[in-house]
């Protein structure tokens, strides 16, 4: 019998908020450049459109916690597409140039194409359209790729942790076949949603034997239209049982691939990019590694995260968010909400991964005597 006292995580703990967000007394104008306390601009916004997912990957939504009795957010709590779009316009005025739709699994949100159409109409202060992307587990991508492209989505990132069907079914823990995800990638390429990124979370002892098969497959398929990226298994949330000895450093990933396919380093494509890029020396494409455990990149992190019911998080490893929904559903004007967003970002000093490297995963304060609060679940605000 399951010990529920050790596995049940109430939604209030998963997505707890700070005290209500207030409109600051001193207005923070939207100038197109908003800097936090460490001088980092806000250029990327990740919007979680649902807290639900149809996979039960052990590193994200383990089945013993997110079971049939788990209480998800009620529909009335979720931001409407119009509310998300309103906020996105305000973020764009502060300098956001890229929006990524996440979840949970974002393709589970009914009529997600309608949200994409609205977001595609937003322009930056310079009059440019936003870069619109979406991260998906690929389970529904084959049937929705064309509609997503038609709505204005520019590209997708697909999570895929193995090409071995038995390993993949075990990791997603719902017996979903890898062939259907590969079909989704094919459909996305045919629809013009590229270049596509495929993200593999590498967990030592679970799927690290799949590094080379994944590299071999994607360097010989799709003519460079897919970029494979390897992500270090991270200590996100409180439910995945993370241990440091299950982390395979990205340096080891590169070494394994380089031994078979020589690699050369590439420069970052954009400031604040999370992945270190490597090209195959023979010109057959590139790969990336995301090393938030062993090589923290907090110093230039420019990403804000909006949960599906309107909480603004300033770090993937945050313990609490700033609740914007009361302002949205109250009498606050756009200028009021914009000023509140600016005030929140200007106070940001989050750098969890750097502090983890100094003090360990249970201390984000720098004081070894203070245990850090439980971090928000990755499934709640996206990866």
Structural description of this entry:
There is one protein chain. The relative contact order is 0.18. The model is unreliable at 1-13 and 363-371 (pLDDT under 50). The protein has helices at residues 4-7, 11-14, 81-93, 112-120, 141-151, 165-172, 178-191, 211-220, 250-260, 325-328, 334-346, 352-359, 378-381; strands at residues 44-48, 98-102, 131-136, 155-159, 196-202, 226-232, 263-265, 276-280, 286-290, 303-306, 311-313, 322-323. The protein has a twelve-stranded mixed beta sheet with strand order 7-8-9-6-5-4-3-2-1-10-11-12. The radius of gyration is 20 Å and the shape is globular. The longest helix has 14 residues, at 178-191. It has 13 helices and twelve strands. By secondary structure, it is an alpha/beta fold. α4 packs parallel to α5 (141-151) and α5 packs parallel to α7.
SSE layout and pairing:
Layout: H1 4-7, H2 11-14, E1 44-48, H3 81-93, E2 98-102, H4 112-120, E3 131-136, H5 141-151, E4 155-159, H6 165-172, H7 178-191, E5 196-202, H8 211-220, E6 226-232, H9 250-260, E7 263-265, E8 276-280, E9 286-290, E10 303-306, E11 311-313, E12 322-323, H10 325-328, H11 334-346, H12 352-359, H13 378-381
Parallel strand pairs: 1-2, 1-10, 2-3, 3-4, 4-5, 5-6, 6-9
Antiparallel strand pairs: 7-8, 8-9, 10-11, 11-12
Task: Give the gist of this structure.
This protein has 383 residues and is α/β, with parallel strands linked by helices. It is 30% helix and 15% strand.
Helix-strand sequence:
HHEHEHEHEHHEHEHEEEEEEHHHH
Please compute the radius of gyration using only Cα atoms.
20 Å
> How many beta-strand runs?
12
Q: Order of strands side by side in the largest beta sheet?
A: 7-8-9-6-5-4-3-2-1-10-11-12
Strand content: 5-15%
Main pleated sheet: 12 strands, mixed
**Category by helix and strand content:** alpha/beta
In DSSP terms (H or I, runs of 4 or more residues), the helix count works out at: 13
Q: Given the C-alpha coordinates, what overall shape results?
A: globular
Whole-number mean pLDDT: 89
Helix content: 25-40%
Give the uncertain stretches in residue-range form: 1-13, 363-371
What's the quaternary structure here?
single chain
N-C termini distance: 32 Å
